[in-house]
């Protein structure tokens, strides 16, 4: 359903993603972990067709992200790192706009808006200006936007950031319920979230995949924290060595 | 087409909730009114002087088209050089800044639909501006008898000119996420196109003709005189299509990098 092969992305001299490969089966929820600057957002931007890769390929729902970008974009719901909102629009008119540009048939739009407003708990702010919403509500509208056309693949960049505890639980269970038919890739820094809802984990560090494993095989005995810290520490000795040499 | 209208509709609605748009619109109409008032006052003065002198030849040459409407249109065109960049600066630059560019480019929209939608939205706003400035000539029709054909040709010229400005504005807005840079580079490009024919008289014959052909002013001036020539229409269409084509390329270029 989602297949990434030898993806590399350079920004000038900076290599943000190096030779990354991983895959997710249909209906799986994949947790995409890594420290700040590891390359999670970059990878997701490539998957959604926003950025081109320097080299490598990626397939979503059987379509190549580069050569069949339009097909891929039709099948993806994407919540970027910062919710892509127009401050001068109301929640409802914004969702209507997104539904239209996602190519939804006119007749289905109003029902879809009602559905995601309920799903993401937006009833109270449905006619408020997006520019006046609190961070958590902005995040929820961002999520509603990604879900509106009921896409088979969801790419969520830190979906629960800024939400209140109750909403975190709700959104988590929502994502959990989405699975089954939909493939979800979500990045997060909240490890318990991953152990609760993800079926597969990919950890990336300094642009390289350091771990790709099914959740069931992973957590036997060890906590996810230990696994995470261990995985991102593996690469560090040489990196630490280089930086201490430079300082010395 | 539906997608183009969706983008254009959102763009247009966002203008009408933005203070910038109202400032620009009001400023444009105020300046237009000021020009109009002064041109009309001067016309009246000339009329009084030459009537007193009983000079029928000159009196015959005094007409509203040449002495009020033509200079008004030229003045308005200069104001548009400054104000259109302010209208178009936000189109693509602000999307990049706000992160909504990511929404547009990861939706199934075609890039041409995005660019055309942005163009159409700004065009409609600028067309409303130009149309509202039409009240000044309308006042003349109430009190005098200017030639309708010439006025309409002149206004078509102003609209085509403004539309070309909008296309250039979309192009410069596609280069950057900074609205100020978008506006200033649009303003500089438009001014350059406006005055590029200045050295034409001193330059050689071919270069002079070329400079005159490239200059927006020359084509506009023809239309203000009431001449609608296909050569001028082709010129404006070329500028618009070329600018939009380059804007398309510029938006697309994110995919090559
Ligand atoms: N437009 C850009 N130009 C240059 N470098 C960039 C750009 N975008 C990202 N980078 C660099 O690429 C690397 C990976 O960034 P990315 O945003 O993918 O990290 P991330 O894993 O999402 O981090 P975080 O957890 O902080 O969100 C970082 O070193 C970052 O500085
Ligand atoms: Mg990130």
**Backbone CA Rg of chain B:** 20 Å
Tally of distinct domains of chain B? 1
Share of residues in strands of chain B: under 5%
**Count of helical regions of chain A:** 10
State the assembly state of the protein chains.
heterodimer
- Topology as H/E string of chain A? EEEHEEHEHHHEHEHEEHHH
Describe it.
The complex is a heterodimer of chains A (248) and B (257). With 248 residues, chain A is of the alpha/beta class. Chain A has a single domain, classed as Rossmann fold, CATH 3.40.50.300. In chain A, the strands form two sheets. Chain A has a six-stranded mixed sheet with strand order 6-7-8-3-9-10, sandwiched between helices. A four-stranded antiparallel sheet of chain A has the order 2-1-4-5, with helices on one face. The longest helix of chain A has 14 residues. The termini of chain A are far apart. The C terminus of chain A is likely disordered. Chain B is an all-alpha fold and 257 residues long. Chain B has one domain. In chain B, helix 1 crosses helix 7 and helix 4 packs parallel to helix 9. The interface between A and B is medium-sized, with 28 and 25 residues. Bound molecules: adenosine-5'-triphosphate and magnesium ion. Magnesium ion binds next to helix 1 of chain A.
